[in-house]
Structure formats: C-alpha cells, structure tokens
Design brief:
- This protein is mainly α and about 100 residues long.
- It has one domain.
- Helices cover about 70% and strands about 5% of the residues.
- The protein has 4 helices and 2 strands.
- Helix 1 crosses helix 2.
- The longest helix is centred in the N-terminal third of the chain and has 30 residues, at about 15-45.
- It is elongated and about 45 Å long.
- It starts with a helix and ends with a strand.
Length: about 100
Amino acid sequence: MFPLSIARLIAASGNLPDLASARASIAMGIAFGGGPFAIGVLADGVGVYRSMLVVPVLLTAAGTAVWWSVHMGRRATGDPAGPRSVATPHTNWEFGRIRG
C-alpha cells in the first residue's frame, strides 16, 4: 500500500511534496516499529491466532482508504484519471525519444 498511498499524499499536498513524503515516511516508521508490539500486546490478551486476524483487517482498511481517495479525487476533478500526481511524467520524453 505504501507506493499507492505515497503517490496520493504527494498529489494532494499541492506545493509541498517534500513535507508529504516526510510525514508519510514518519508514519510508516511508527507503524513498522509499533505494529509488532501492538500485535504482541493483543496476542497476550486474546491469543496469537486471533491477534493475527487484525492484519488482514488493517490491510483491507488501507486498500479501502486508497480506493476511496482515488474515487473522491475523480469526483472532485471530473477527470476519469483523477488528480494528476507527481508520479505522472510531465516531460516531453516518451520511450526514449523526444515528442514533437
């Protein structure tokens, strides 16, 4: 989900792609560092099997959030492709040749 969500965050950031990227990286670090501990605490209370069922739920929530942001971006711009992101090439290069 990280590549999809970071592209959406940068697209929504306006003129602050560095800030959006930094905040996304910090959030990813917190999730990677705190996630296993949170699942461990949950496993102590309800058991390992039940605590690991949280992972698919969180992945589904993340996928839904990305889908929703794309859908809302399409509605806001009226463009079927949604708002243009920084990941969209804005150069005159196509397949190694300069377009006319």
